[in-house]
Amino acid sequence: MINPIERITQDRIVQLFQQELGYTYYGNWEKKEHNSNVEEEILKRNLLSRGYSEPLTDKAVKEVYDLAVTNSGNLYQRNKDMYSLLRYGVKARVDLGEQFDTIFPIDWNDFDKNDFGIAEEVTLTKGENNRRPDVVLYINGIAIGVLELKRGTTDISESINQSISNQKVLFNEWFYTTVQLLMAGNNTQGLKYGTIETENKYYLAWKEDENENQGYKLDKYLKKLCAKERILDIIYNGIVFDAGKKKLPRPHQYFALKEAQEFIRKKEGGIIWHTQGSGKSLMMVMLGKWILENVANSRIVILTDRTELDDQIERVFKDVGETDVAKTRSGKELMQFLTSPRPRLVCSLIHKFGNKTETDFDTFIKDLQDNPVNIQGEIFVFIDECHRTQSGKLNQVMKAVLHNAVFIGFTGTPLLKEDKKTTMDVFGRYIHTYKFNEAVADGVVKDLMYEGRAIEQNLTSESKVDQWFEVKTAGLNDFQKNELKKKWGTMQNVLSSKSRMEKIVTDIIVDFSTKPRLKNQMGNAILVASSIYEAAKYYSLFLNTELKNKCAIITSYNPNASDVSLEDTGTDNETDKQFIYKTYTDLLKDVSVKGNKSKTETYEADAKERFRKEPVRMKLLIVVSKLLTGFDAPPCTYIYIDKKMQDHTLFQAICRVNRLDTDDKDYGYIIDYMELFGNVKDAINVYTSELDSEEFTQEEVSIQLKDRLKVAKDRLFTAFEIVESICENVEKPKNDLAYIHYFCGNTEKPEDLKATEYKRMALYKAIVEYIRAYANVKADFIAAEFTETEIRRFNDKLDEYLNLREIIRIASGETINLKAYEADMRFLIDTYIKADESEVISPFENISLLDLLEINIDTAIDSLPNEIKGNKEAVAEIIENNVRSKIVEEHLLDPKYFDQMSILLQELIERRKQETINYQQYLKEMAEVIRQVNQGKNDDVPKCLNTKGKVALYHTLDGDEQLTLVLEEAVQYAKQDGFRENIAKQKLVKKAIYDVVVDINKVEEIYKIIDAHKDEY
To answer: pTM of the prediction?
Structure first.
């Protein structure tokens, strides 16, 4: 049956919980009275069966029930209190004077000792209005999960919205005091999960064993998520209460936690690479909480170079009940904490480790090595952005001070060659990775859209400039004049000209009037300046625009009179330092300090808070380096870059705009003013191209009635026969799952969706034709002499085909919300005319960064403006940067091959720079490098190695085809479902690898490849 009703789906799910997950079926509670979130009889029966005395059991049941049904406080606080009661137990005693016992409503150590049950159609009558959740999950009679189901043609978001409304006071807020897990599902989109007060956009899809494609994704992920041991583990180890929001782990966080636990058990350090915006801070909290509870005598030191993260970690740990937390204010205090048994958790800013001057740094390290500090406890050190903070002498300090500690590094970017060795020396291998493209695909962060803009500058009168210079420097000799020219003739000084900056300000103001997110005041922006002077200059220019009082400057500068005490030159002109000082004193004069903060700290804290929460009041932040790492502001949609940046710094900066926000945020936009092409001679020649307007097309169905009934009748029969022939090969019983498998394959595998795309296109086209043919003749069924049976059949088929089309579109992700594009359409109409002040120079307009390298090199170069085509250096740098990014992104999947590609690229770059290769030959060889990088293998790889995983193994095994095939077969035979999360199953895979290669040094190298290719193993 296509698109079965909810009742059929619900019956199947109820059977799944009973037969495959082992839950007890309590029944249909639609007519049962007094349904509660704590079924007291079931809870009491379980506690007695676990050996608690009846008096203690009665006290525990009463305390849990009283908290579950109380109305005091808000839902968040009640749920937090209930979680604490369930997790840490009820303290009770039979009589005064006796010691307190702890009664655990749920047995967290042995899941088999709990009673897992489900009830359906649970009518709730205690609220202001009745509601009836589809399925409620109980553990020992305590409602811990709610599942809402919809039919396949109803979007899953409706189930989520229903669950959200159920939590309102208007309905049955009280019931959700005990609930830990909220789920919504249907047969086409599968399952999404959240917890109390989770917004619709933050509901998550579980992701695991993507190759498994036997049944509905709804069933698959209910079995993954609600397996008894798994659901207890997620609730016990994965839930975090953070500043008024309850959070569950995303799949990558949960699996990283499981991997990290195995490393910790072996006292092994490592690196967790989770891309920017994917929740590294919560990852730290979850792992830290687990260590403190599971490793005897453990202590954690969390080192970060971000004050905000330092504050957040302290707050979250205290929220989860870990009150033994301290923040250090100096290096000396940090050492005192480490040599004392308490506190168990120490947060410190990274620079507290290195507060010595450069001259005595080596002496400081030697002193520490010669006089080791007596550290108390098992120390685990978490380092935020480990590639940035762990380098050079700082590593030596940390190794010297914390020589027996286990180091866990957290990074949002891959380790590049220059810092990879140093970082891995301290931390070890990767524990878990979650790359940017994975996060985009999972909807965890927004993809990034790049646009290069150029501000053209010309020297208006060379002779007058020379004349002015000679007059002003009449008293200087030639050497002094040359030194002056060198200082002020740099590109950066040319770029910081007032004329250019004014045009950029105008450019940004136009964007705030035209770009959808900025225009509707739902989003805001960051401008990155190259220096504090330029930031101050930009700020002063924006004060004369509509952004006055709605922009702020955030830098490391604090105004001090000593800054300008030696700056007075006796003229009326301001020096750069005087201008900065004056700008800051003016903006801070009306600021009232708060707490123990300075005026600058108060001003910046207020600006950041408004930027995060009130984009209407704070539209633009002007920064230099502060806020470019670790600053999370969901409304931030645009970043304007007017500063040279590269590698980690650039990636972290642009990721300020990739956070999820309201539905109208489709991308994070990077506007780059520093991609300047051409040589600097007397002035900067900037090459530009026109901005091609982005076009959105919408298929409009136009039904034109025909005069001749015979043509209309023939058309309908033909359209019907075409649809039926397209569906002919769908396997019986031809239900919605069979249609999804035939037209989509495995909906979790992009290659399946791509391979079956032609089937869907044919189906959509045929159904549209049927709709048109049907509508064309419907009013004339009788006149066209259709029989009653034929009319009924064509009516039924119309409903069936519409349902089928909707199911396939939803399952394949090919739906489109036209309303979301209204603002973009209006934007195109409003901004069709190109501004003269800036022109787009990116040759890849409106293409995601992730897709950039899929463009053929010849096509890419050909799309460049004529001026840029003639600039060989500019073309080369565009190509090289993008190829390098692709190599870094793919490196984990096939390290040996992409190491070779990296060497090839670097050699080619060196030959170009040394001018030992002509330009045409360079392009020819670069095209070949790109082809090999995109292909992911050499041309001579045997055809039987037909997957990326096999090819990677082949490369790692030095091109031994037979050994590769034997190893592939051995791994496929040895691997078991969920081996990545289970150390025992991992050992089976590693043993299979060793049995084939008989080289212990190769085992880990090969296992990493197996682990990285999640779509094959």
So the answer is: 0.65
